[in-house]
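REQUEST FORM: STRUCTURE PREDICTION
Request ID: SP-0412
Submitted by: Lab K.M.
Chain count: 1
Length (residues): 288
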Amino acid sequence: MLVNAKEMLDKALASHYAVPQFNINNLEWTKSILLACEETKSPVILGVSEGAGKYMTGFETVSAMVKAMDKSLGITVPVALHLDHGSYDGCYSCIKAGFTSIMFDGSHFNIEENVEKTKELVAAAHKAGLSIEAEVGSIGGEEDGVVGMGECADPAECKKIADLGIDFLAAGIGNIHGVYPPDWKGLSFDTLTAIKEQIGEKMPLVLHGGSGIPKEMIQKAISLGVAKINVNTELQLVFAAATRKYIEAGSDQKSKGFDPRKLLKPGADAIIEECKAKIELFGCANKA
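STATUS: Completed
RESULT:
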C-alpha cells in the first residue's frame, strides 16, 4: 500500500532527518529506488514531473506501475507517489490517477493567485486523502523546460501559503535544479531561518535541487527544518556514466550484451548505490 507523505515528513522533522524524494523516469528507475529503500529501511517519496509522466504515457500508467511494483517486490517501507512541480490541471489529473501526494507549483503566479489556487487544491487533496506541497520563490535551473533563476522566497509570502493547510512547503533559498555552476553562491541559511520563524516549527520544509549540494549544507539545512530533499540529476548522471562504461568496454557486443536487461543493469545498479549514499547522508536509514 502506498501512503501520503504527511506522516513520514512529520516524523522526519521531529527527529531531524530528511526523507528523500527520488524522481522516477521509467521502470528501471522505479525498481532501483524501491530496492535501495527497502534494503536500507528508508521511507521514500517517488517524484514524477509532468514531463516524466508524459514520457511514461500518462499518470495512470505511472500509478499502476508503481502500485504493482510495490506489491510484487514485497516492499515494506512507506512509499508515497508524488507529483513534482505540478500545474493546476496536473494536480487534478494525479488525484484522479491514484497518486498519494501532489505538489502545486504556483511560484510563477503573483502571491494572490498562488494563494487562491493553493487553497482550492489543499481542499481537493485532503478530501481525497493526499498530502500536498506548495512552493514560494522560484527554484533555479531548468525543470521540464521551465527556467528559474534561484530566487530566495519572501518569508511573509511563505506564511500566507503555509497557513492554507498545506502539509509541507518548498521555498527557494538559492537552490537550483540540475548541475550547480562553479560560481554558485550556496544556500541562504538566513532566508531559511527567517522562513522557519514565520511558518512555525511544525511545518516541514522541502529542499529542491538536492543533487550536488555540499554535505555540510545538506546537514545544516536539515538541522534548520528541511525534512524532504529532492534528488534527480545525480541519479541521471550515475546511470549515464555506468551505461557509457558498459558500452565503451564493448560489453554490449559480447554474449547478447545488447539485451536491454543486460544493457541497462549497470546503470540500474548505479542508481541503487547512489540512493543508498543519499539515504546515509540524509539520516533516514532504518526510519521506515
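NOTES: The longest strand covers residues 44-49.
Reviewed by: T.R.
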